[in-house]
């Protein structure tokens, strides 16, 4: 009898425990059926232990961890690792009635179809991952005896290297995708989950038939539940650990890379506040090689030496933010296969004597390079002399020098000297050409000069030859005064020097643009989207003027729908896969090349281009700033920040156009731009057809960046924006639902 109160008390306690357990399952879930925490204490040989059962994660490849703040993480690189769970008999990790798949991940490289956690095979099972640059959750459910695959997808592009909390749920009636606690997409789906025979649970890889999609991810934690968490549960779980997913980390400008030579890369970037210059790089991840300059500065420049050809490198920038905290950017990629640096030369001195005229030739070479303004391209020397002028020009520039002369003895002697100098066949060639007709392609030469003239000898070719080979839009010739005034030369050039103003007593002329030549300065020809260059010269017969680099490999696939090349003032501007090229449009010389990790714009027909040419400058939108680049040298002249509307929303630079007196720009909510991945193909009438919209339009002074005006009334549809004759045209929506919609894609 005395035990009854105790029994009653125990019953009450047990009931309370049951209520607590049920409540715990309601808001914070019960125990997961699979739980992998990626830290060294959970490593057992080649396995990561499952805290919730007997299904460990097996990893083929070298297991590597890193720690950022309080977060431990392990890399899964699809090219170097195979990470999967081989299920034991009777496993609970593949529930059929309901499921939650949860992960804390940072993606270093996206692919066409990426798997974070995947139990998919033969169009069955489920996949929590990403499609190109958008998180997605796929699930196959049985409906009326058939397996149907259903997909949910986040509307915004993800950021490489940023930590995310990604969750997919299915409760037997609906399928949901959450990113950082927010519901991104949902669909009504019913029926039990259908699995293929003997699927494995794969981490970081997705296999479908013969296609294997290999991404590169950092995993902090992954869990599977045999029921669906509610949206409130997901939000609470994110809030509880969101400190391990800090805000996006990047420097103010850059980084961007320039190849100096075969072994050396020059990296540049800019920070908001003074910071040491620190870069970590290597072929293994995590990267460990460190180069640094500890002096505090905001504009950073550092060299990476010892680069091996045809290798893949990773690198990070380490910097101090405005709060004094040391931060690290995401891991960027450098593929050293793409070497467009000038050919290395090893010049031997002492080949030419130090006579009375040695200084005169040095001064002449310096004047030619200075007045012409070309450091790369072709210099044609009419009359080789001894080859000394070619030697001095090649020493002081990256120009390719072509010497021509009708005297075979002079040609042989010059070849011998230049060969001894180490320049012949590498940077300088000498050709024996008799007669007054040069067998060169039209407009080949950026520079035309003559050693004969410096020796008071006649130039052995004709003014017509110079007119044929001298490049329009600034090609420079150094001529005797009577040649500079010849009618053939005078008609196509403007003089910029005279005998009494130059040390070498020649007249310097620059060629004018071709009469009737057009330009392609914007995605669709001009700011008015006319798709017309206004070129009056194109007519039969058409012939190839040149062919060569950069070739197809550094380019993005055409299915990406990337920004079009631009052509203006004798230069081509071509956007590759996170690379930007400046080319001479008349002879194909690569004037400069920059690797810019954040340079990517895809699906342009549903958006707008990220670049525009204006005069001698190129303007490129990179993330939240507009870069102003010198078209001839590739030098970064200035950057202008996007003019964000008021509020806490982060914006990127969207539209860019030449508005005549001003630059026209727009602000797109961060994540709204299509970034693309490897193998994407934007040609389907689905969510990839959604239009990118801007929250405003604004005008800037192209020199100072000063804001002239802003316009904010509705959501502006980017592909409809056109400018001409001082007027902007566009389509916008002022629907309250559209204005309040979180994503920029409508």
Q: What are its keywords?
A:
746 residues; mainly beta; 9-stranded antiparallel sheet; 8-stranded antiparallel sheet; 10 helices; 49 strands; elongated; disordered N terminus
Please explain how this structure is put together.
The chain is mainly β. The protein has ten helices and 49 strands. The strands form ten sheets. A nine-stranded antiparallel beta sheet has the order 2-3-4-7-16-9-10-11-12, with no helix packed on it. Strands 1, 5, 6, 8, 13, 14, 15 and 19 form an eight-stranded antiparallel beta sheet that branches. Helix 3 (358-372) crosses helix 4 (388-395). The longest helix is centred in the N-terminal third of the chain and has 25 residues, at 3-27.
Secondary-structure blueprint:
Elements: H1 3-27, E1 34-37, E2 43-44, E3 47-48, E4 57-60, E5 65-68, E6 71-77, E7 82-85, E8 99-109, E9 113-118, E10 126-131, E11 134-143, E12 146-153, E13 163-170, E14 174-179, E15 182-188, E16 201-203, E17 205-208, E18 211-214, E19 216-225, H2 231-241, E20 253-259, E21 265-282, E22 289-304, E23 312-320, E24 326-328, E25 332-335, H3 358-372, E26 378-382, H4 388-395, E27 400-405, H5 408-421, E28 428-432, E29 447-449, H6 451-454, H7 463-469, E30 476-479, H8 481-484, H9 487-492, E31 493-495, E32 507-511, E33 566-568, E34 571-575, E35 579-584, E36 590-595, E37 611-614, E38 617-622, E39 625-630, E40 636-641, E41 651-658, E42 663-669, E43 693-694, E44 696-700, E45 707-711, E46 715-717, E47 722-724, E48 727-729, E49 732-733, H10 736-740
Parallel strand pairs: 26-27, 26-29, 27-28, 29-30
Antiparallel strand pairs: 1-19, 2-3, 3-4, 4-7, 5-6, 6-19, 7-16, 8-13, 8-19, 9-10, 9-16, 10-11, 11-12, 13-14, 14-15, 17-18, 20-21, 21-22, 21-23, 23-24, 23-25, 30-32, 31-32, 33-34, 34-35, 35-36, 37-38, 38-39, 39-40, 41-42, 42-44, 43-46, 44-45, 46-49, 47-48
Helix pairs in contact: 3-4
């Amino acid at each position: 009898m005395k035990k009854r109160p105790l029994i009653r008390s125990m019953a009450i306690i047990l009931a309370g425990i049951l209520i607590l357990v049920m409540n715990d399952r309601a808001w914070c879930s019960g125990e997961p059926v699979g739980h992998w925490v990626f830290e060294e204490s959970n490593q057992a040989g080649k396995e990561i232990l499952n805290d919730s059962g007997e299904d460990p994660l097996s990893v083929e490849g070298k297991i590597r961890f890193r720690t950022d703040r309080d977060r431990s993480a392990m890399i899964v690189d699809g090219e170097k690792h195979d990470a999967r769970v081989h299920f034991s008999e009777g496993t609970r990790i593949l529930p059929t009635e309901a499921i939650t798949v949860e992960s804390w991940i940072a993606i270093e490289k996206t692919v066409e179809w990426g798997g974070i956690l995947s139990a998919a095979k033969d169009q069955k099972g489920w996949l929590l991952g990403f499609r190109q640059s958008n998180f997605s959750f796929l699930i196959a459910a049985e409906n009326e005896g058939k397996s149907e695959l259903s997909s949910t997808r986040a509307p915004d592009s993800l950021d490489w290297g940023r930590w995310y909390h990604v969750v997919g749920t299915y409760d037997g009636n609906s399928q949901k995708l959450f990113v950082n606690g927010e519901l991104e997409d949902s669909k009504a789906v019913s029926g039990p989950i259908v699995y293929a025979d003997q699927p494995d649970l794969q981490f970081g890889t997705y296999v479908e038939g013969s296609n294997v999609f290999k991404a590169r991810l950092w995993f902090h934690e992954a869990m599977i539940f045999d029921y669906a968490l509610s949206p409130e549960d997901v939000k609470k779980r994110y809030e509880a650990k969101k400190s391990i997913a800090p805000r996006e980390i990047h420097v103010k400008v850059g980084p961007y890379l320039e190849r100096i030579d075969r072994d050396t890369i020059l990296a540049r970037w800019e920070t908001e506040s003074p910071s040491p210059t620190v870069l970590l790089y290597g072929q293994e991840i995590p990267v460990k090689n460190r180069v640094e300059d500890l002096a505090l500065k905001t504009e950073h420049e550092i060299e990476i030496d010892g680069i091996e050809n045809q290798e893949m490198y990773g690198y990070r920038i380490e910097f101090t933010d405005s709060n004094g905290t040391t931060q690290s950017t995401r891991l960027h990629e450098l593929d050293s296969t793409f070497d467009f640096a000038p050919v290395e030369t090893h010049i031997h001195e002492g080949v030419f004597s130090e006579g009375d005229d040695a200084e005169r030739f040095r001064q002449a070479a310096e004047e030619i390079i200075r007045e012409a303004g070309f450091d790369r391209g072709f210099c044609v020397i009419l009359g080789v002399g001894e080859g000394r002028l070619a030697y001095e020009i090649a020493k002081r520039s990256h120009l390719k020098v072509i010497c021509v002369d009708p005297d075979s003895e002079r040609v042989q002697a010059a070849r011998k000297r230049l060969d001894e100098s180490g320049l012949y066949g590498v940077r300088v060639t000498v050709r024996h050409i008799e007669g007054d007709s040069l067998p060169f392609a039209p407009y080949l030469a950026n520079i035309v000069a003559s050693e004969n003239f410096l020796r008071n000898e006649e130039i052995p070719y004709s003014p017509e030859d110079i007119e044929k080979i001298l490049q329009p839009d600034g090609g420079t010739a150094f001529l005797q005064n009577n040649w500079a005034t010849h009618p053939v030369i005078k008609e196509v050039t403007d003089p910029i020097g005279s005998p009494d103003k130059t040390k070498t007593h020649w007249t310097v002329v620059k060629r004018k643009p071709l009469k009737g030549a057009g330009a392609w300065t914007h995605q669709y020809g001009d700011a008015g989207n006319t798709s017309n260059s206004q070129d009056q010269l194109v007519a039969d017969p058409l012939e190839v003027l040149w062919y060569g680099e950069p070739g197809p490999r550094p380019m993005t696939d055409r299915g990406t729908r990337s920004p079009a090349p631009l052509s203006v003032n004798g230069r081509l501007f071509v956007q590759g896969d996170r690379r930007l090229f400046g080319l001479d449009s008349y002879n194909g010389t690569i004037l400069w090349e920059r690797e810019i990790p954040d340079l990517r714009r895809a699906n342009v027909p549903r958006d707008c281009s990220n670049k525009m040419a204006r005069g001698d400058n190129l303007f490129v939108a990179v993330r939240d700033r507009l870069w102003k680049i010198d078209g001839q040298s590739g030098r970064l002249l200035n950057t202008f920040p996007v003019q964000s509307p008021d509020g806490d929303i982060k914006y990127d630079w969207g539209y860019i156009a030449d508005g005549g007196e001003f630059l026209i720009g727009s602000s797109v909510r961060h994540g709204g731009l299509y970034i693309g991945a490897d193998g994407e193909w934007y040609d389907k009438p689905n969510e990839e057809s959604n239009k990118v919209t801007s929250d405003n339009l604004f005008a800037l002074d192209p020199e100072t960046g000063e804001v002239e005006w802003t316009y904010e009334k509705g959501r502006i549809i980017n592909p409809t924006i056109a400018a001409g004759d001082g007027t902007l045209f566009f389509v916008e929506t002022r629907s309250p639902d559209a204005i309040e919609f979180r994503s920029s894609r409508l």
